[in-house]
Structures are given as C-alpha cells and as structure tokens.
Amino acid sequence: MDKLNALYELAAENEIEIVCKSFSGTKKAACLHLKPNKYVILDKPAMSSMSEEGAVLSEEIGHYETGGLYVIESTYNSPISRSNRIKYEASARHWAYRQMLPPHEIEEAYMLEGLHDDFAMAEFCQVTIEFFRKAIEYHRSCGIVFSFDNVEDCT
Questions:
Q1: CB-side exposure of 15: number of CA atoms within 13 Å?
Q2: Which of 107, 149, 141 is nearest to 125 (CA)?
Q3: Which of 22, 119, 121, 142 is 20 to 30 A from residue 97's alpha carbon, by CA?
Q4: What is the pLDDT, as a whole number, of residue 154?
Q5: What is the DSSP letter of 38?
Q6: pLDDT tens, 24-45?
C-alpha cells in the first residue's frame, strides 16, 4: 500500500475527516478540532505532487497524534504562546518523519534498491526531497547512524 493511502486510512481510523479547501497565501493545510469532531483541511491544488500531499498530511495528522493543537490567533500575541506553537509544530513534524520515513526504510532504499542519491531515494520512499533530507537530519539528531554516512562521495 502506498504511503498516502495509508495516511488517509490512519486518519479514518482516528476519526479525522479530511476536507479539501483552498487557502489564500502559502498555507497548504490546517487542523480544526471542533470537539468531538477532528478535521484536517488540505489545499490539494496547491500541492505539486502526491509526495508533497503525503508530507503535509502526515504533519497535520501528527498534530493530533502528539496532542500538539493550538489556536493560531493566540500564538501571535504572547512569547509563551509562540514558543508552544514552535514546540507543537516540531513535535508534529518529528512524528511525521518517524511515521513516513523510519530509519529502516531509508536503509532499505540505500541497500536493497541500490539507490545512492537523495532524489532517487526520496522518490523510492514516496516523499519529497525536502522531507527526505529533513527526516535524515532528524534521525541523525536522535543518534541514528546510517550505513551510507561512512561512504565517501567520489564525485
């Protein structure tokens, strides 16, 4: 099963309704929790690929999975609220990295598929190149050492 479908199934299992709606500006998604209902609003036309949709959706689901929900308006007025927003965003992203791109899958792309460049590995893993690189940074910050970390680039 592909990752995007798995995310939609996870959302359904957790009773998170996915709603498609266009946003103005650069925003591509948001969570809306109107107890007891949970929503993720996606601006699908603003996304360049299914890989980007998966990256965006995984982070939004990550807000629910980590309890990192906040009122957007309240985060602009207070330094504490802004700090909490930054923490919640980081927690949701970290959840997304662990969910969408666990270390063993990165290793599989490198070892089994013979993929040795970031673009090919990201495509194999069904994520954007930006998501792929940030996920590797995150896993390394958690102490993960990949087999390709010790390979010298001869190009």
A1: 6
A2: 107
A3: 22
A4: 45
A5: E
A6: 878 899 998 888 999 999 999 9
